[in-house]
Structures are given as structure tokens and as C-alpha cells.
Design goal:
single chain, mainly alpha, Amino acid/polyamine transporter I, 2 domains, 16 helices, about 70% helix, about 5% strand, transmembrane
């Protein structure tokens, strides 16, 4: 920004709309297509793996209906959020570069701190969920090969703890890379891996349905007898959280919008991009979730790919699980970067004279052509401690489905509904107690109730799991 600003002033020949936008930054080049691709990449992730289980709890009627409802709510509130990219005039108003900046610009006060807290807690939770999911996939690869090598005689029970520790060691090393979030190819790799394992899961589901010659499942979901009446209620509530987690991308929508060029107005482009991307995502989710439920019926697993664990071709499942691990190794770092940056910036401002926090040691690299590595002692200790904490919590609570449900419930209402609705009301100066104001508030309250039910169901699931799970001892 600093260099660009100097060029903007010192070179009058470049001082025109062909080089810079109205905020003095280099011209944005994003389009409807690039914005759609970014949204699809952000939405389709590990959340897709739990959708078959979610539909199995709700049944053939309520399952797809609830998924469609979440897609409509997410689309509508995303459209409200796009109108908050600029404060004031939708064409020439002040730009908000991040979600939190939009909250600060339009709502201000304590709500900015609340929003930041929710975002950081959600990101912390995602890092735990990713650690659990990666360990499940590593175990699936090991068990699949063990099972086939023994000819099906060895049940291949194992603990998830060593695999979580392996994942944690990898993340400690990667967390020490400065500016990890600037590695441009990371998003491309994540997108390829996401579609790889999701596509394989969908293909296997279709193949299994063709093989058995019928669609399993029922109109009302998992049957009593398989679970108790209380378990059915809690599981149905948790299913709402799992589906909500699959649609959680609102916190980065403003950042994607900040890449879009104008004219036309950025909000207009983003509304079209959101409509297309959510339509594609929902169709893909419907296929994955419904085919998974059709394949397994009441016994649909928390993680779709683990349900195919001992089926042939097992090498294809190994590829899918390896794709999950590769995706999550990078995704963990991307989601943790805002937390790392926030803590390190706060520490440098709090203790500006401390050499432990500010000094960087240049370590020569043994490979010619590589720049010296900049080692910062505070970064080394703090980031290592963070990864160790998320790993230990994952080892204590290795319940992928329940953690996903809690994350979906915790993040859905505030980040996807409440703040977009409140900012939109402030942006458009909607009169209190007007029909539109009442409708928006009713939408927000309704979604709050959904989040509370989803959170309650997920927490109940964790409590039930802990009754039979013994940390560091239980094997799968």
C-alpha cells in the first residue's frame, strides 16, 4: 500500500482510473467467475463428509428440506452482507476490506469486540476439527491396508492419538513459515483436494446404490430401536449444526468481494456470484448427502469416507483420504493465520522494547538460491504452544461429528445471520418496527433458535460419547 501510494502521487501519468481504484489501491481485477470460484472453494470442504449422517437423522423429507432451507437463508443473508461492503453510497462509499471492519464501520462499539471474539473462537474450533478429521483419514488409510493385507482376519483396532500427534508435528513446522497465507498456490491445491475426496465419496455412493439395487433409508430418518427416543432428538438437533457448518463462509465474503472490480457495483456482481455458487454447492451437497444416506441408511457414518473403509477398490479410498489430509494440512494454517497475526501484533504493541518479541535472527539456508530464514523466538514458542493445545484438546475429544455440529451451531447465527442483518438495517436506515425491520428480526430470532437447538444436540452428543470414551486408551 505504501509503495503504491507513492507511485500514485509522484507519477501523475499513472494518476488515473486505469491503474488505481478509488481508495488508492491497485485496480481490482476480480470478476463474477473468479468470485464464484472463490466462494465454491471456501464452502466445499470437510463439512461435506458429515452430510450423509445428518440426512440419516432427519430422513428423506426433512433432510433435503433442511439443507435447502439453510441454502436459502445463507444466500439471503449473504446478499445483505454484500450491501455492507461500502459504507453509505453503494458505488462510491468507503470500502470495508474485512468482515470485522464492516462491523466496526456500521455497528461499532462493543459489537466489534464480540464479533472478533466469535471469529477467533470459531477459527480455534476449526483447527481442532481439522486435527480430528485428518487423524480419522490417516487411520482409515492404515486400517484399510491392514484389513486387506490380513485378508479380513485382523480387525485392525488402533488409537487416533499417534496420528493426531503426527499431524500436530507437521503443523508446528508449517506454522513457522512467515507469510504462509501469501503462498498463492495453496488455495488452488485446497480446491483440487476438496473436489477430489468429495467426488470420490459421491462416486462410491452412487456405485454402492447401483450395487445393492435400492435406496436405503426412510422418510423419517433413523429408526427407533437403532437409537433411543432421546438419542433421536439429540441427533436430529446435531444434524442441524452439521448442515450449518457446511455452509459457513460468511466471515470471508467481504474479503472475496474486495477482489472484485467495478463497474458494475461490487455488490451487484457478488449477489450473482453468491447465487451461482450456492446453487452449485447445494446441488453437490444434495448428491453427496443423499447418495451417502441411500448407501448406508440408518448406519450412515459421521465421516462418509470411513463408511467405505473396507470396500474395494480400497486404493481409491486411500487416494480420497490422502486428499483430505493434504487439504487439511494447508487449511489448518490458513484458518490459524488470523489468530497468529492478532496475538503477535498485540504482543509487539504491548511490549515494543522486548527483543524476544521483535528481534528476528537470520539463519542461512543450506540450499543455494533460498533467502535466509528469519527466526523469531516469540513466534516459535507461541505458535508451537497453540498447535500443541489444539492437538491435546483433539486427543481428549476426538469426536468429529459432534465438534462439527458445535462449530456449525456456534458460528451460524452470529456470523451468517445476526451481524449481516444488523449491519444491513443500519446501512439502509430501516425504520424500527417497520414491516421489513420486523421480518429481519424474526429471521434472526428464528436462526438463533436453530443454533441453540443444534448446539444443545452436539453438546449432548459429546457428553454421551465421553461416557464410553477413555482418553489415550480407546481404540477404533
Amino acid at each position: 500500500m505504501g509503495e503504491n501510494h507513492r507511485v500514485f502521487i509522484d507519477n501523475p501519468s499513472l494518476n488515473d482510473s486505469q491503474c488505481f481504484d478509488d481508495d488508492g489501491r491497485l485496480k481490482r481485477t476480480g470478476t463474477f467467475w473468479t468470485a464464484s470460484a472463490h466462494i465454491i472453494t471456501a464452502v466445499i470442504g470437510s463439512g461435506v463428509l458429515s452430510l450423509a449422517w445428518a440426512i440419516a437423522q432427519l430422513g428423506w423429507i426433512a433432510g433435503p428440506a433442511v439443507m435447502l432451507l439453510f441454502s436459502i437463508i445463507t444466500f439471503y443473508t449473504s446478499c445483505l452482507l454484500t450491501d455492507c461492503y461500502r459504507t453509505g453510497d453503494p458505488v462510491s462509499g468507503k470500502r470495508n476490506y474485512t468482515y470485522t471492519q464492516a462491523v466496526g464501520s456500521l455497528l461499532g462499539g462493543y459489537k466489534v469486540k464480540v464479533c472478533g471474539f466469535i471469529q477467533y473462537v470459531n477459527l480455534f474450533g476449526v483447527s481442532i476439527g481439522y486435527t480430528i478429521a485428518a487423524s480419522i483419514s490417516m487411520m482409515a488409510i492404515k486400517r484399510s491396508n491392514c484389513f486387506h493385507n490380513s485378508g479380513g482376519k485382523n480387525p485392525c483396532h488402533m488409537s487416533s492419538s499417534p496420528y493426531m500427534m503426527m499431524f500436530g508435528v507437521a503443523e508446528i513446522l508449517l506454522s513457522q513459515i512467515p507469510d504462509f497465507d501469501q503462498i498463492w498456490w495453496l488455495s488452488i491445491l485446497a480446491a483440487v483436494m476438496s473436489f477430489t475426496y468429495s467426488g470420490i465419496g459421491l462416486a462410491l455412493g452412487i456405485a454402492k446404490v447401483i450395487g445393492i439395487g435400492t435406496f436405503r433409508g426412510s422418510l423419517t430418518g433413523i429408526s427407533l430401536g437403532t437409537v433411543t427416543p432421546a438419542q433421536k432428538i439429540w441427533r436430529s438437533f446435531r444434524a442441524l449444526g452439521d448442515i450449518a457448518f457446511a455452509y459457513s463462509f460468511s466471515m470471508i465474503l467481504i474479503e472475496i468481494q474486495d477482489t472484485v472490480k467495478s463497474p458494475p457495483a461490487e455488490a451487484k456482481t457478488m449477489k450473482k456470484a453468491t447465487k451461482l455458487s450456492i446453487a452449485i454447492t447445494t446441488a453437490f451437497y444434495m448428491l453427496c448427502g443423499c447418495m451417502g444416506y441411500a448407501s448406508f441408511g440408518d448406519f450412515a457414518p459421521d465421516n462418509l469416507l470411513t463408511g467405505f473403509g473396507f470396500y474395494n477398490p480400497f486404493w481409491l479410498l486411500d487416494i480420497a483420504n490422502a486428499a483430505i489430509v493434504i487439504h487439511l494440512v494447508g487449511a489448518y494454517q490458513v484458518f490459524c493465520q488470523p489468530i497468529f497475526t492478532f496475538v503477535e501484533k498485540w504482543a509487539s504493541q504491548r511490549w515494543p522494547e522486548s527483543k524476544t518479541i521483535t528481534k528476528e535472527l537470520k539463519i542461512p539456508m543450506p540450499i543455494r538460491g533460498f533467502r535466509p530464514y528469519k527466526l523469531n523466538l516469540f513466534r516459535l514458542v507461541w505458535r508451537t504452544a497453540f498447535v500443541m493445545l489444539t492437538t491435546v484438546i483433539s486427543m481428549l475429544l476426538p469426536f468429529f461429528g459432534d465438534v462439527v455440529g458445535i462449530l456449525g451451531a456456534f458460528g451460524f447465527w452470529p456470523l451468517t445471520v445476526y451481524f449481516p442483518v444488523e449491519m444491513y438495517i443500519e446501512q439502509k436506515k430501516i425504520s424500527k418496527w417497520s414491516s421489513r425491520w420486523i421480518c429481519l428480526k424474526m429471521l434472526s430470532m428464528g436462526c438463533l433458535m436453530i443454533s441453540i437447538l443444534a448446539g444443545t444436540g452436539s453438546i449432548a452428543g459429546v457428553i454421551l460419547d465421553l461416557k464410553v470414551y477413555k482418553p489415550f486408551k480407546t481404540t477404533y
